[in-house]
UniProtKB/TrEMBL annotation:
Region Disordered, residue ranges: 1-23
Domain of life: Bacteria
Compositional bias ranges of the Basic residues kind: 1-16
Protein name: Reverse transcriptase domain-containing protein
InterPro entries: DNA/RNA_pol_sf, GrpII_Intron_Splice-Mob/Def
Organism expressing this protein natively: Acetobacterium tundrae
PANTHER family: NUCLEAR INTRON MATURASE 1, MITOCHONDRIAL-RELATED, PROTEIN YKFC
Amino acid sequence: MKRQAYKPQPGRRVHIPKPGTNDKRPIGIPVYEVKLVQANLAKILNAIYEQDFLECSFGFRPNRDCHDAIQL
């Protein structure tokens, strides 16, 4: 990651049947390594940007959800 040499592997594409028809719809299943990198990158970015948010901001922040915003 630091050397910017990381190349994510493509996700696996699976076709699942649609209920009530003979059609199938594609669904992408991510590789575990990609999910791990995304989670760690999210932790780093949250640590950097969390201090810039106001206390009244609730969208997609750790330990805050839409129910907290409604209670204000």
